[in-house]
Protein 1
Amino acid sequence: MKITVIAVGKIKEKFYTEALSEYSKRLSKYIKLDVIEVADEKTPDQASEREVAQILEKEAQRILAKLPSGAYVIPLAIEGKMLSSEGLSEKLAELGLQGDSHVAFIIGGSLGLADSVLEKADFKLSFSKMTFPHQLMRVILLEQVYRAMRIMRNEPYHK
């Protein structure tokens, strides 16, 4: 299975880069992982709705330009479906059995994702009704994909 993560913004904090590096290394045993960062737009203080929409659309154009052809698209969105770790494992296993061997997860920036990105979704995934920093969300996603791979193979993983 190949997993592509398309994420808005760069990771600057060392503790995030170290965690991402560790999970990327762990995942290399199970999948081919490709992480693509696209530039985020600066959001002015007190941005108007119009400015927010323009920023989201600029980021969306960058995301959509990097979306792999034929991939099963899963944007992370608050309004998406929440799954347990076992549920995510089942979902990824099911996709593999259906022949969807390339999955693209999309993580938006601080403003979220434009409708034009969400419309490309084959499945919308929510980790919580809470909002998380997009840098931390990248770590959480990789950890959960790693956990899903371990569950899929009946390998032990701390609970």
Protein 2
Amino acid sequence: MHVFVTGGTGTIGSAVVAELLGDGHTVLALARSDASEQTLKEAGAEVLRGELADLDVLRAGVAQSDGVISLAFGRDYSNPDVLAAAIAEESAAMATLGEELTSSDRPIVTVSGTPWVPGRASTEADPLPTDGPVGGRGRSVNALLELASRGVRATAVRMPRTVHNEGKGGFAGLLADQARRTGVAGYPGDGTQRWPAVHALDAAVLFRLALESAPAGTSWHAVADEGDAVRDIATVIGRRLGLPVEAVSEGAFGPFGPIFAMDQPASSAHTRDVLGWQPAHPSLLEDLENVQP
């Protein structure tokens, strides 16, 4: 396939572009800067210049493609106003991409997060939250999946809170950054709460599998590690950075505190059984051995 990719230079996106090219697909990737364009061209992708907010550019990308993988999203989660604007931009972009694919039976794969379910690991059958600060993302993903009834093979890959590579990325990466700033490898609560995780290269394989064969209207979990205790994550970070490991208040993590304190494991049993996805890269705790001072 000739695949149109947005967000192709991020932790997930760069791995997805490499996975697609390595498996014989070709890639047309959206680039908003000279640096992004250069990175994508060096990876072997064709480039379409523009921003995610440039809806006409997105339409042009769809017109040139056999399928779409939509990954672009703002990175500032700490400012509520900026986050709301990023969600609105993403929602408009996904609506435009989906509309352009209507009645074509072409695939589009989008990204969301694994849901939180009290008392157990979430599964692919659990609904995304549609309220709260990020509820708009859940609503836009649901709207895209509903296009299955209009001739769009729309699917969603749900990502855990930590997508890692070489000891960097996700919630675990934020813990490491906080430890460097404060001199303490801290964790909120008693540290028994669990975070799911996946290596970026394994996640990329799942995006490809979903693009190639997932049925319309379906959701999949890119979860390699169902849930590592946050205290265990902090322990590895502390050892690698030579810092003490201690419980700290939720407030020390700012707006992330309440989320960091949640027990939020997730399962990918259905994804593995149906799509044959088998993570093969290092687990989170193994990959954190790459954390550098």
Protein 3
Amino acid sequence: MPSPLSAYDAMVRDGTLQPDPAQRAGAEALDRLAKSLKRYDPAAKGLFRKTPKPPKGLYLWGGVGAGKSLLMDLFFEKAPVRAKLRVHFHAFMQRTHRFIRDWRAMDEKTRRAHPSRMKSASLDDPIPHAANHVFSEAHLLCFDEFQVSDITDAMLLGRLFGTLFELGAVVVATSNRHPDDLYKDGLNRQLFLPAIALLKERLEVMEISAARDYRLGHLEGDRVYFSPLGKDATARMDELFARMTARGEIAPMEIDVGRRSLHVPCASRGVARGAFKHWCSEKFGPGDYLTLASEFPVVFIDDIPLLGPENRNEAKRFVTFIDALYEARAMLICSAAAEPDGLYPSGDGAFEFQRTASRLHEMRSRDYLSQEHEGVSEQAAE
């Protein structure tokens, strides 16, 4: 199997990526980690053998469009590890909070019988068991868009990651911020400082200061909105989707949202794509849109029709989806039957739609497109 570095170099040779020294340095660091993982097996311990020491992980940080997520995707695809997990950090924290809530709701007998129970930990303390639950699934953890904006997360992370590292987990993370700037100016930030120190101890911190914006470099003349509908708009969307995903493998994706999952028709490398008819069906609610907006920095919406009173429910869901994408500063790329101001020309709800039209215009601007993608808090998503 090709290594992360050889895969990166191949993408440069075929023109999918432009040469960039900072990106290649990141690929080299990930390549070294992949080679170390070949020799690491946390289960390789016995009566006369010590627990093997895990290799140091990697924390890649840098500005929007530096290619951090792409590099991590290449690493994840090529890493010689079976038990591995690649997840958006916001989604990971949502899952962790749900596990903790569920654990607290269990009686003692159920806790004792739980497959994720850590026998050395108190049954009344859910955090070690939450960490053991994650480690039982994967010992290589790849987190995209590592950021901390919630006091609950800040208080939880130190102990959660401390237990994960004790168990032998290896972590790779991407972020727009250096670890020292995580949860900056947050409430009771001094309580989060040990978690920062732990990350810096267990992960090599590396800046990816790319010479160009990898993401914006794929846009021709800032075109992210294609109208009217037709073969030309579809062809533009197809080509832009291929370039935004660096022509990676495209597949459907299911996102865990508690006791059910959200279906994403096409997903690859932090980019989601689906038709208006899918995104704005009755399967989705406000919390689902917030989750999607946090999970994906780039979202494609195909075939937005002209809207009117007869499809007011779909129009309301579309408004909610656009609000979620806007608040998360996600990039929106879409094809539509008309320009934003003409999508909902008259009828019940048309006046309220004017704000959405205004946002659709703003989301095409260079200023908006160059902003950092942001997540939403666990509370906001509920």
